[in-house]
Design brief:
Strand content: 15-25%
Helix content: 40-55%
Number of domains: 2
Main location: membrane
CATH superfamily of the largest domain: 2-enoyl-CoA Hydratase, Chain A, domain 1
InterPro entries: ClpP/crotonase-like_dom_sf, Pept_S49_pIV, Pept_S49_SppA, Peptidase_S49, S49_SppA_67K_type_N, S49_SppA_C
Number of strands: 26
Subcellular location: Membrane
GO cellular component, one term: membrane
Pfam families: Peptidase_S49
Radius of gyration: 25 Å
Length: 562
């Protein structure tokens, strides 16, 4: 009898957002979606034809939160008695390999190439600073923030970590390390103190890692698969994401979906938050308030949708757009449908703003969230343009018509107006956190001031309700809606037909309004500035560089936790 041995290639990134159009689907054919992998392992756990799982682990393709979501799925799969094996050529090759090893430790066996090593060297929380480089170019950021922990501004205003930035980064690293050490210790049968000691000794050679109990066998890929064939008999290899797609197309599952069962809608919001339509460039996406709002309105109206899970993977963006999306979240709840937020790798600042009005918020221990604060201002490039021999001139009507020009600095009066506006935004943000989360203003202030937290620390502070991934969020949504997980159909929204995509929306309430703007439209908007447009070419340049201009709720754009 031939059994199925599932395969996972974890050396490349997994997509967070499923493709929603033919072009994106074609680009993503070799890139599985994280949720497809998790769902595939859930289905395979009860499939008698599936004997086990073998995964190729390596590189730094996944975030800490994604790794924790995968680890949980692998452990659930292994708990049914099926074989789980992780193999790799090396964990780092004299480079950092902590996160790949943390992922591999969830498997029952770890196989390592004899020439490889284990770079289990710990966690680094690092930020990049551009102040000196921008100064040499003649670029001068004028930014203000609320408050000292809003370190996105430090990227442009500082040359090293401030005391507040260092304090927050230290806690992020410590929190991540706590969960990594605990996870490795539990899965490898080692004491946490022993794991920390091995981290301080790393990097370790393959033989030393085996002697320490970090790996089980030293072998090459061919030997791994030969061993599994001897153990399991005749096997058919199949990638997990291919397996789940074929299972979902089985006639009985298709008929089940057509049987008008209740639906839990999963709505994805990934990328920077802005007004207007969402956009996609290749496999990258953004969150447009019009697009996400249309999707949420559709879910609220659909009688088959019993609950909504909003999957958020965003470091923030526009305050106004974030507030508009939060309002739509509240309207879903007012329609009598539970809305549960599942935080992915990052759901901070504007990402937290659009999450906080949910019935329940779930995050992974390693999710980066919080950053309840605001920064605003502009970048002045006059010195750079002068060096290039480029000048600008014009006439104005209105005392503050030049206020947001990148060619001149703020006047003192304009700076005070900016400061007042930031105070208003911060007060509004924190007041809404208090109202949505049932916290006092004092409690919110202790966790706010722009500080980023891990999901675990955010839960301890009342910013998050529960630790868990997307599958757990679906279970919570089902419980709140009064239906069992087994009797619902979980569907990603929007789900548009080709005809709906081609014809475009007839109104802002039309389902087609929930489609993202394609790459051609987006490219045109970046290269062409229509007459009378408020977006000038220099503003487009700062957008492309990721430099904040005005009024953004954002987390550090050059932050790295590895």
């Amino acid at each position: 009898m031939t059994v199925t041995l599932l395969e996972l290639d974890l050396t490349a990134p997994l997509l967070e957002t499923p493709p929603q159009d033919p072009l994106s689907a074609a680009l993503a054919r070799r890139r599985p979606v994280l949720h497809d992998v998790v769902e595939g392992l859930r289905i395979a756990a009860s499939d008698p034809d599936v004997a086990g799982l073998v995964a190729h682990v390596g590189g730094h393709a996944l975030s800490l939160a994604q790794i924790q979501e995968l680890r949980a799925a692998v452990r659930r799969f292994a708990a049914t008695g099926k074989v789980t094996v992780a193999w790799t050529e090396t964990f780092g090759e004299l480079g950092p390999g902590t996160l790949p090893y943390y992922l591999a430790s969830a498997f029952d066996e770890i196989w390592l190439q004899p020439s490889g090593d284990v770079g289990l060297t710990g966690v680094v929380a690092e930020a990049v600073f551009l102040k000196e480089a921008l100064g040499k170019l003649g670029v001068h950021p004028q930014l203000s923030r609320r408050h000292e922990y809003k370190s996105a501004a430090d990227t442009f205003l500082a040359s090293q970590m401030t005391d507040a930035h260092r304090e927050a980064a230290s806690r992020l690293a410590a929190s991540a390390m706590e969960h990594i050490v605990t996870g490795i210790a539990e899965c490898r049968g080692l004491a946490p103190e022993r794991v920390r000691a091995l981290i301080d000794e790393a990097p370790l050679s393959a033989s030393d890692a085996k002697d320490a109990g970090l790996v089980d066998r030293l072998a090459y890929r061919a030997e791994v698969y030969e061993h599994l064939r001897r153990r399991l008999g005749e096997v058919r290899l199949r990638f997990v994401h291919r397996y789940v797609r074929s299972k979902l197309m089985e006639p009985r599952r298709v008929l089940t979906r057509l049987a008008h069962r209740p639906v839990v809608a999963v709505v994805h919001g990934a990328g920077s938050i802005h007004l207007g339509r969402s956009s996609r460039r290749g496999l990258s996406t953004s969150i447009g308030s019009d697009t996400l709002g249309a999707t949420l309105r559709r879910a609220a109206r659909d009688p088959r949708v019993r609950a909504v899970v909003l999957r958020v993977d965003s470091g923030g963006g526009s305050y106004v757009a974030s507030d508009a999306i939060r309002h739509e979240v509240r309207r879903v709840r007012e329609a009598g449908k539970p809305l549960v937020v599942s935080m992915a790798s990052v759901a901070a600042s504007g990402g937290y703003f659009i999450s906080m009005a949910a019935d329940s918020i779930l995050a992974q221990p390693g999710t980066l969230t919080g950053s309840i604060g605001v920064l605003g201002g502009k970048v002045v490039v006059r010195d750079l343009l002068d060096r290039l021999g480029i000048t600008r001139d014009g006439v104005t009507e209105g005392r503050h018509a030049w206020m947001f020009s990148s060619y001149r600095a703020f006047s003192e009066e304009e700076w005070q107006r900016l400061e007042h506006w930031l105070d208003q935004v911060y007060d509004d943000f924190t007041a809404k956190v208090a109202a949505d989360r049932g916290l006092s203003r004092e409690q919110v202030e202790e966790s706010a001031r722009g500080r980023v937290w891990t999901g675990a620390d955010a839960q301890a502070r009342g910013l998050v309700d529960e630790l868990g991934g997307l599958e757990r969020a679906v279970e919570v949504a089902c419980a709140r809606a009064g239906v069992s997980r087994e009797e619902v159909d979980v569907r990603a929204l929007p789900h548009l037909s080709l005809a709906e995509r081609v014809r475009g929306p007839e109104s802002t309430d039309d389902l087609a309004a929930s489609a993202a703007v394609g790459p051609t439209t987006r490219l045109t908007s970046l290269l062409v500035t229509p007459p009378g447009s408020a977006q000038r070419p220099l503003d487009v340049l700062t957008d492309l560089l990721g430099v904040p201009r005005l009024g953004v709720l954002t987390t550090p754009v050059l932050w790295d936790l590895r």
